[in-house]
UniProtKB/TrEMBL annotation:
Domain Response regulatory: 4-120
InterPro entries xref list: CheY-like_superfamily, NreC/VraR/RcsB-like_REC, Sig_transdc_resp-reg_C-effctor, Sig_transdc_resp-reg_receiver, Tscrpt_reg_LuxR_C, WalR-like
Species this chain originates from: Paenibacillus agilis
Family matches, as PROSITE patterns: HTH_LUXR_2, RESPONSE_REGULATORY
PANTHER family: TRANSCRIPTIONAL REGULATORY PROTEIN LNRK, TWO-COMPONENT RESPONSE REGULATOR
Keyword ATP-binding part of the UniProt annotation: no
SMART domains noted in UniProt: HTH_LUXR, REC
Keywords noted in UniProt: DNA-binding, Phosphoprotein, Transcription, Transcription regulation
Domain HTH luxR-type intervals: 160-225
A molecular function GO annotation: DNA binding
The keyword Cytoplasm belongs to this UniProt entry's keyword annotation: no
Tree of life domain: Bacteria
The protein, known as: Response regulator transcription factor
Modified residues (4-aspartylphosphate): D55
Amino acid sequence: MSIRLMICDDDVFIRESLKLICQLQPDFSVIHTCGSGHEAAALAADEPVDVVLMDMRMPDGDGVEGTRLVKQLCPATKVLILTTFDDEQHIIDALRHGASGYLLKNSDPSRLMEAIRTVHSGSVLMDSSVALKLAHLLRHSNSGTSASASAPQSDVPEQPKWELYPLNTSEQAIIQHIANGLSNREIASTLFLSEGTIKNYVTEILAKLELRDRTQLAIWYWKQLSRQ
Protein backbone atom coordinates (compact mmCIF):
# COMPACT_ATOMS: atom_id res chain seq x y z
CA MET A 1 0.00 0.00 0.00
CA SER A 2 1.38 3.41 -0.96
CA ILE A 3 2.08 6.26 1.46
CA ARG A 4 -0.53 8.96 0.89
CA LEU A 5 1.00 12.45 0.90
CA MET A 6 0.01 16.08 1.13
CA ILE A 7 2.47 18.82 0.15
CA CYS A 8 1.86 22.20 1.79
CA ASP A 9 4.04 25.12 0.64
CA ASP A 10 3.06 28.61 -0.50
CA ASP A 11 5.79 28.61 -3.16
CA VAL A 12 4.20 26.99 -6.23
CA PHE A 13 7.56 26.06 -7.75
CA ILE A 14 8.70 24.25 -4.60
CA ARG A 15 5.31 22.61 -4.20
CA GLU A 16 5.24 21.25 -7.74
CA SER A 17 8.90 20.20 -7.58
CA LEU A 18 8.27 18.21 -4.41
CA LYS A 19 5.22 16.65 -6.02
CA LEU A 20 7.24 15.57 -9.05
CA ILE A 21 10.01 14.07 -6.90
CA CYS A 22 7.56 12.21 -4.67
CA GLN A 23 5.58 10.83 -7.60
CA LEU A 24 8.74 9.14 -8.87
CA GLN A 25 8.68 6.88 -5.81
CA PRO A 26 6.69 3.67 -6.35
CA ASP A 27 5.44 3.65 -2.76
CA PHE A 28 4.29 7.30 -2.66
CA SER A 29 1.00 8.80 -3.79
CA VAL A 30 0.49 12.59 -3.71
CA ILE A 31 -3.16 13.15 -2.81
CA HIS A 32 -3.22 16.91 -2.11
CA THR A 33 -1.12 20.02 -2.67
CA CYS A 34 -1.89 23.38 -1.08
CA GLY A 35 -0.38 26.69 -0.04
CA SER A 36 -1.33 27.29 3.60
CA GLY A 37 -1.87 25.59 6.93
CA HIS A 38 -5.58 26.32 6.83
CA GLU A 39 -5.91 24.70 3.41
CA ALA A 40 -3.97 21.69 4.66
CA ALA A 41 -6.37 21.21 7.55
CA ALA A 42 -9.43 21.49 5.31
CA LEU A 43 -8.06 19.00 2.79
CA ALA A 44 -6.98 16.56 5.50
CA ALA A 45 -10.44 16.66 7.03
CA ASP A 46 -12.02 15.97 3.63
CA GLU A 47 -9.63 13.18 2.62
CA PRO A 48 -7.02 12.17 5.21
CA VAL A 49 -3.44 11.38 4.22
CA ASP A 50 -0.61 9.51 5.92
CA VAL A 51 2.06 12.23 5.85
CA VAL A 52 1.95 16.00 5.36
CA LEU A 53 5.06 17.84 4.15
CA MET A 54 4.53 21.19 5.86
CA ASP A 55 6.40 24.38 5.05
CA MET A 56 6.98 26.55 8.10
CA ARG A 57 6.57 30.09 6.79
CA MET A 58 3.32 30.70 4.93
CA PRO A 59 1.13 33.83 4.92
CA ASP A 60 -2.30 32.26 5.49
CA GLY A 61 -1.80 29.82 8.34
CA ASP A 62 1.87 28.98 8.94
CA GLY A 63 3.35 25.56 9.62
CA VAL A 64 2.72 25.75 13.35
CA GLU A 65 -0.97 26.54 12.91
CA GLY A 66 -1.25 24.01 10.10
CA THR A 67 0.29 21.29 12.26
CA ARG A 68 -2.03 22.10 15.15
CA LEU A 69 -5.14 21.97 12.97
CA VAL A 70 -4.15 18.84 11.03
CA LYS A 71 -3.29 16.90 14.19
CA GLN A 72 -6.49 18.09 15.84
CA LEU A 73 -8.62 16.88 12.93
CA CYS A 74 -6.55 13.83 11.94
CA PRO A 75 -4.47 12.58 14.90
CA ALA A 76 -3.07 9.63 12.93
CA THR A 77 -1.60 11.84 10.20
CA LYS A 78 2.14 12.47 10.49
CA VAL A 79 3.46 15.98 9.88
CA LEU A 80 7.01 16.49 8.61
CA ILE A 81 8.15 20.10 8.87
CA LEU A 82 10.36 21.50 6.09
CA THR A 83 12.39 24.30 7.60
CA THR A 84 15.50 26.49 7.62
CA PHE A 85 18.20 27.11 10.23
CA ASP A 86 16.51 30.21 11.69
CA ASP A 87 13.13 28.63 12.50
CA GLU A 88 14.05 27.13 15.89
CA GLN A 89 11.20 28.53 17.99
CA HIS A 90 8.64 27.72 15.31
CA ILE A 91 9.93 24.14 15.16
CA ILE A 92 9.56 23.79 18.93
CA ASP A 93 5.97 25.01 18.70
CA ALA A 94 5.22 22.59 15.85
CA LEU A 95 6.72 19.66 17.77
CA ARG A 96 4.55 20.54 20.75
CA HIS A 97 1.51 20.43 18.48
CA GLY A 98 2.40 16.92 17.34
CA ALA A 99 4.78 17.22 14.38
CA SER A 100 6.74 14.02 13.83
CA GLY A 101 9.97 15.81 13.00
CA TYR A 102 11.65 18.29 10.74
CA LEU A 103 14.04 18.38 7.82
CA LEU A 104 16.09 21.21 6.37
CA LYS A 105 14.82 22.50 3.05
CA ASN A 106 18.22 22.12 1.42
CA SER A 107 18.37 18.38 2.10
CA ASP A 108 18.99 16.00 -0.80
CA PRO A 109 15.86 14.49 -2.39
CA SER A 110 16.98 11.04 -1.28
CA ARG A 111 17.13 12.29 2.31
CA LEU A 112 13.59 13.66 1.99
CA MET A 113 12.29 10.33 0.68
CA GLU A 114 13.93 8.56 3.61
CA ALA A 115 12.45 11.10 6.03
CA ILE A 116 8.92 10.55 4.73
CA ARG A 117 9.25 6.80 5.21
CA THR A 118 10.74 7.32 8.67
CA VAL A 119 7.88 9.42 10.04
CA HIS A 120 5.31 7.21 8.33
CA SER A 121 6.72 4.23 10.24
CA GLY A 122 6.04 6.04 13.51
CA SER A 123 9.56 7.28 14.26
CA VAL A 124 10.52 10.85 15.09
CA LEU A 125 12.92 12.57 12.71
CA MET A 126 15.38 15.16 14.02
CA ASP A 127 17.99 16.66 11.69
CA SER A 128 21.24 16.33 13.66
CA SER A 129 22.64 19.64 12.39
CA VAL A 130 20.15 21.67 14.43
CA ALA A 131 18.67 19.19 16.92
CA LEU A 132 20.93 19.97 19.87
CA LYS A 133 20.50 23.71 19.38
CA LEU A 134 16.74 23.18 19.43
CA ALA A 135 16.99 21.05 22.54
CA HIS A 136 18.79 23.87 24.37
CA LEU A 137 16.14 26.38 23.31
CA LEU A 138 13.38 23.97 24.29
CA ARG A 139 14.83 23.68 27.78
CA HIS A 140 14.83 27.44 28.33
CA SER A 141 11.50 28.17 26.65
CA ASN A 142 9.75 26.66 29.66
CA SER A 143 11.14 29.32 32.00
CA GLY A 144 10.58 32.20 29.61
CA THR A 145 14.29 33.06 29.47
CA SER A 146 16.56 33.14 26.47
CA ALA A 147 19.34 30.59 26.21
CA SER A 148 21.97 33.32 26.31
CA ALA A 149 20.48 34.97 29.40
CA SER A 150 19.82 31.82 31.38
CA ALA A 151 21.87 30.48 34.26
CA PRO A 152 24.57 27.88 33.60
CA GLN A 153 23.40 24.29 33.43
CA SER A 154 25.01 23.51 36.79
CA ASP A 155 22.77 26.12 38.46
CA VAL A 156 19.56 24.50 37.19
CA PRO A 157 18.29 21.93 39.72
CA GLU A 158 15.34 20.49 37.78
CA GLN A 159 15.34 16.81 36.85
CA PRO A 160 13.01 14.73 34.71
CA LYS A 161 10.50 12.61 36.57
CA TRP A 162 12.79 9.60 36.49
CA GLU A 163 10.34 7.48 38.47
CA LEU A 164 8.12 7.31 35.38
CA TYR A 165 10.77 5.44 33.39
CA PRO A 166 12.60 2.11 33.90
CA LEU A 167 16.02 3.73 34.22
CA ASN A 168 18.61 3.13 36.92
CA THR A 169 20.78 5.91 38.37
CA SER A 170 23.72 5.16 36.06
CA GLU A 171 21.48 5.37 33.00
CA GLN A 172 20.00 8.63 34.25
CA ALA A 173 23.46 10.14 34.64
CA ILE A 174 24.50 9.02 31.17
CA ILE A 175 21.37 10.57 29.63
CA GLN A 176 22.17 13.90 31.27
CA HIS A 177 25.73 13.84 29.95
CA ILE A 178 24.53 13.01 26.43
CA ALA A 179 22.02 15.87 26.59
CA ASN A 180 24.88 18.19 27.49
CA GLY A 181 26.85 17.09 24.43
CA LEU A 182 29.43 14.72 25.91
CA SER A 183 30.84 11.86 23.84
CA ASN A 184 31.02 8.27 25.08
CA ARG A 185 34.72 8.74 25.84
CA GLU A 186 34.06 11.90 27.87
CA ILE A 187 31.22 10.22 29.77
CA ALA A 188 33.43 7.20 30.49
CA SER A 189 36.13 9.47 31.90
CA THR A 190 33.62 11.35 34.04
CA LEU A 191 31.97 8.23 35.46
CA PHE A 192 35.19 6.16 35.72
CA LEU A 193 33.85 3.46 33.41
CA SER A 194 35.15 2.00 30.17
CA GLU A 195 34.02 3.44 26.85
CA GLY A 196 32.61 0.03 25.91
CA THR A 197 30.49 -0.01 29.06
CA ILE A 198 29.05 3.41 28.22
CA LYS A 199 28.27 2.24 24.69
CA ASN A 200 26.38 -0.75 26.10
CA TYR A 201 24.48 1.51 28.49
CA VAL A 202 23.46 3.81 25.63
CA THR A 203 22.17 0.88 23.58
CA GLU A 204 20.09 -0.30 26.54
CA ILE A 205 18.74 3.21 27.22
CA LEU A 206 17.64 3.68 23.61
CA ALA A 207 15.86 0.33 23.70
CA LYS A 208 14.06 1.14 26.97
CA LEU A 209 12.86 4.53 25.73
CA GLU A 210 12.19 3.29 22.18
CA LEU A 211 14.44 5.95 20.66
CA ARG A 212 16.61 5.65 17.56
CA ASP A 213 19.80 7.55 18.39
CA ARG A 214 21.63 9.96 20.71
CA THR A 215 20.06 13.02 19.10
CA GLN A 216 16.57 11.76 19.87
CA LEU A 217 17.72 10.95 23.39
CA ALA A 218 18.98 14.51 23.95
CA ILE A 219 15.71 15.95 22.64
CA TRP A 220 13.78 13.54 24.89
CA TYR A 221 15.69 14.73 27.97
CA TRP A 222 15.12 18.44 27.35
CA LYS A 223 11.46 17.86 26.51
CA GLN A 224 10.97 16.11 29.86
CA LEU A 225 12.29 19.21 31.62
CA SER A 226 10.16 21.56 29.53
CA ARG A 227 7.00 19.74 30.65
CA GLN A 228 7.61 20.43 34.34
